[in-house]
């Protein structure tokens, strides 16, 4: 009996540690980011840091303004959502409601595969196909641009949008659709006027997940966006918040390194905001 | 009781996980040039494997490395430029370890194959913007470079005297990415460490001199810089540091140095 109790306690202890690891990691990262991100902001000045248009971290007289990065990240993410959400949404409606079983199986497998492709592969394919393609199509000197990054991001967020939307659409009670159909509505009318509104908070969750993925991506966009800290323009070379940190971190020191931590802090706050939005949608969903 | 016990066990397990960390006593400390990270890393690793002596490296930049060895804060200072006269006057000695050649690369379709150092500087500063101005086809020049603080960028910009003046179209984070980007765009020009240049791009002659290991070694290829080990004239190195110094400057280390992409002197 005592032996059993001891075993129980050991297992309790192990599970407690495992749980604490996750909590500990989150706390550690948050505290570390805040502590290491604040000094540079204090030294540069919050306003100058967030709204400065010039980033010259290694110049003789360095200036640390991250407005180009913030705007690029916002535009890039917005662009990816504008392209990715319609494609993902209609694919999800088709797969959840209309597709024959076999096509559905094949397409769902393809979507899962897309989700599993490492981001460096997206970047490489983008660099070898998309960037030269944009250069030739639009007859500009170089194709590495915000547009290339938007297209890569749009493709990268498709799997999460499609999968979460499908789950939401399939969770709509059959009775709703049957009622609509028996009232004489066509299937397509039913899907868009009954099923989609019923699943709308799930679909909103999918979009927010997509935003989170797009704003946090570094590797793939680093390879296709050119990485020059310009103010964003569709065909210009741009640098994202993520790539600003990743690109310079390895050699940086002193104030430059602290400023990179501050960028990471800004990015972290953005992602917290997105997560809060996500939780809001999920909670509202549950309360219904 | 149950809670206290499980907490105790948790604490115990956590402690054992942290045990077993140890530190070695013997070490050679180096401090300086960020560009020398790769070569010092390779040498330090090989040295530690042979002798068990750790080599530490602090990437602070050539200036601070020279200062550090002068003040005795490290065993060997690392500099990616020759010592200045006033630094030599302070009793510092520079020993050239290796030469770092930087190739200027263009797309294989590009008809230009020879540019002078001044022309390259003008191109990177945005004073020449079209290939036809230097004898190529009518296409806007696309400047590809490395990220700020990269050793190769630092080397290229200091030799061509274009520091903070380069009008880059793309700033990439690895030599491989620069080569790929240049190989994909017929109007692109980039720079990369000589050892990593592949057939997918064309290395330009600079002032009529082809970029190769020989021309870097005999000094006729100008886009190059020395990697210098800095020591103090009057102060004796510790035994470990002396052993490391002797080994890296001997021909035995040449292969390891070459593996880091630079040309060994000895």
**What is the second-level CATH architecture of the largest domain in chain B?**
3-Layer(aba) Sandwich
Q: What would you give as the CATH superfamily of the largest domain in chain A?
A: MetI-like
Poorly predicted ranges of chain B (pLDDT <50, ≥5 residues)? 19-24
- Which class best fits the helix and strand makeup of chain B? alpha/beta
Domains of chain A, number: 2
What is the string of SSEs of chain A from the N terminus onward?
HHEEHHHHHHHHHH
What does it look like?
The complex is a heterodimer of chains A (288) and B (266). Chain A has 288 residues and is mainly α. Chain A has two domains: 2-48; 67-287, MetI-like (MetI-like fold), CATH 1.10.3720.10. Helices cover 80% and strands 1% of the residues of chain A. Chain A has helices at 2-44, 46-51, 67-98, 101-116, 119-138, 146-170, 174-182, 187-198, 200-216, 219-224, 241-249, 254-287, and strands at residues 55-56, 63-64. Chain A has a two-stranded antiparallel sheet with strand order 1-2. In chain A, a hairpin with a 6-residue loop joins strand 1 (55-56) and strand 2 (63-64). In chain A, helix 1 (2-44) packs across helix 12, helix 4 crosses helix 6 (146-170) and helix 5 (119-138) crosses helix 6. The longest helix of chain A has 43 residues, at 2-44. With 266 residues, chain B is an alpha/beta fold. Chain B has two domains: 28-99 and 226-264, D-Maltodextrin-Binding Protein, domain 2; 100-224, D-Maltodextrin-Binding Protein, domain 2, CATH 3.40.190. Helix content of chain B is 36%, strand content 24%. Chain B has ten helices and twelve strands. The longest helix of chain B is centred in the N-terminal third of the chain and has 17 residues, at 2-18. The model of chain B is unreliable at 19-24 (pLDDT under 50). The A-B interface holds A 9-10, 12-14, 16-17, 20, 56-60, 127-128, 131-132, 135, 141-144, 222-223, 226-228, 237, 239, 246-248, 251-253, 256 and B 2, 5-10, 13-14, 34, 59-61, 139-142, 147-151, 163-164, 168-173, 177, 180-181, 184-185, 187-188.
């Amino acid at each position: 009996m005592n032996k059993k109790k001891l075993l129980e306690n050991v297992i309790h202890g192990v599970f407690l540690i495992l749980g604490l690891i996750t909590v500990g990691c989150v706390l550690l990262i948050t505290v570390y980011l805040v502590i290491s991100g604040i000094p540079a902001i204090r030294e540069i000045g919050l306003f100058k840091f967030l709204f400065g248009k010039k980033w010259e971290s290694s110049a003789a007289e360095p200036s640390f303004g991250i407005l180009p990065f913030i705007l690029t990240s916002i535009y890039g993410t917005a662009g990816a959502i504008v392209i990715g959400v319609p494609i993902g949404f209609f694919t999800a409606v088709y797969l959840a409601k209309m597709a024959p079983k076999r096509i559905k199986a094949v397409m769902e497998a393809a979507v899962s595969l897309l989700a599993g492709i490492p981001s460096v592969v997206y970047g490489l394919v983008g660099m070898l196909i998309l960037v030269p393609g944009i250069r030739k199509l639009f007859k500009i000197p170089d194709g590495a641009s915000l547009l290339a990054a938007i297209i890569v991001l749009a493709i990268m967020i498709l799997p999460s949008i499609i999968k979460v939307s499908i789950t939401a659409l399939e969770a709509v009670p059959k009775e709703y659709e049957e009622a609509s159909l028996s009232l004489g509505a066509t299937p397509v009318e039913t899907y868009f006027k009954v099923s989609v509104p019923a699943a709308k908070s799930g679909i909103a969750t999918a979009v927010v997940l997509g935003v989170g993925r797009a704003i946090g991506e570094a590797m793939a966009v680093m390879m296709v966006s050119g990485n020059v800290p310009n103010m964003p323009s569709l065909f210009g070379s741009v640098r994202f918040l993520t790539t600003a940190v990743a690109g310079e971190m390895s050699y940086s020191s002193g104030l430059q390194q602290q400023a990179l931590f501050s960028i990471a802090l800004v990015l972290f706050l953005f992602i917290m905001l997105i997560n809060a939005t996500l939780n809001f949608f999920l909670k509202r969903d549950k309360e219904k | 009781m149950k809670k206290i016990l499980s907490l105790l066990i948790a604490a115990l397990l956590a402690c054992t996980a942290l045990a077993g960390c140890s530190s070695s006593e013997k070490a050679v400390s180096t401090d300086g040039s960020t560009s020398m990270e790769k070569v010092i890393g390779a040498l330090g690793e090989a040295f530690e494997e042979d002798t068990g002596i750790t080599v530490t490296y602090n990437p602070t930049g050539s200036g601070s490395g020279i200062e550090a060895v002068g003040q005795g804060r490290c065993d060997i200072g690392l500099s990616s430029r020759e010592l200045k006269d006033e630094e030599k006057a302070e009793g510092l000695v520079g020993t050239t370890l290796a030469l770092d050649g930087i190739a200027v690369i263009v797309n294989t379709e590009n008809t230009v194959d020879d540019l002078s150092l001044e022309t390259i500087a003008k191109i990177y500063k945005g004073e020449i913007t079209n290939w036809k101005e230097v004898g190529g086809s009518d296409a806007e020049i696309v400047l590809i470079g490395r990220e700020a603080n990269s050793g190769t960028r630092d080397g290229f910009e200091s030799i061509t005297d274009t520091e903070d003046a380069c009008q880059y179209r793309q700033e990439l984070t690895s030599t491989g990415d620069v080569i790929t980007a240049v190989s994909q765009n017929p109007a692109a020009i980039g720079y990369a460490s000589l050892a990593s240049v592949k057939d997918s791009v064309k290395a330009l002659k600079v002032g009529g001199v082809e970029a190769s290991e020989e021309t870097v070694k005999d000094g006729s290829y100008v886009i190059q810089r020395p990697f210098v080990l800095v020591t103090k004239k009057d102060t004796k190195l510790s035994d470990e540091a002396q052993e490391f110094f002797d080994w890296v400057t001997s021909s035995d280390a040449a292969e390891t140095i070459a593996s880091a992409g630079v040309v060994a002197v000895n």
